[in-house]
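The instructor's notes for this session suggest beginning with a concrete chain rather than abstract definitions. Hand out the sequence below and ask the class to guess, before any prediction is shown, which regions might be ordered.
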Amino acid sequence: MERTLCLIKPDGVQRYLIGEVINRIERKGLQIVGLKMLVLSPELAAQHYAEHVSKPFYSKLVEYITSGPIVALCVQGHRSVTVLRSILGKTDPAEAAPGTIRGDLGLTKGRNIVHASDSVEAAEKEIRLYFNNSELISSKLALLDWIFRED
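After discussion, reveal the predicted structure:
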C-alpha cells in the first residue's frame, strides 16, 4: 500500500472544510494513518516548497501557507498518490472537474483548499517533513477486502 501526504490549507481550515475533505478521502476507500493540526513555520514551509524558491509566486505561497492552521494527513491505500490527486482535482479550481474537492469548493489557484504530493518520491519526502514514524498508525482495515482487490 502506498502512502501520500495531504494538507488542508489555511483557507480549507478557515472555511470549516476539514470534515468534508476527510469524508471524501475516506469514502473513496483510502485510510488516514496520520493526522495533525499545526501552524507551519516559515522554515518548514521553505523545506516543503523548496522546488519553487526561484518562482515569482514563492514568497506569496510561503506567506499564505504560514498564515493560519493547516491539517496534515498521511493517507494510505492502493495508488494513493494518483487516487488522492484525482479526488482533489486540478490545481486551478476553474479547471477542476465537478465532483472534485477543488472543482466543488475552490475558486482560485491561490486559495485551492488542499495540497497533495505529486509522486511517490515527493510523498515519501513530504510525509517525513510532517510526521515521524511513531505518529503513523497502520492497521488493516476491516473493510479492505470490500474496497480493494488486486487485479
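Then share the key points. The domain at 2-136 is CATH 3.30.70.141 (Alpha-Beta Plaits). The chain has a mean pLDDT of 94.
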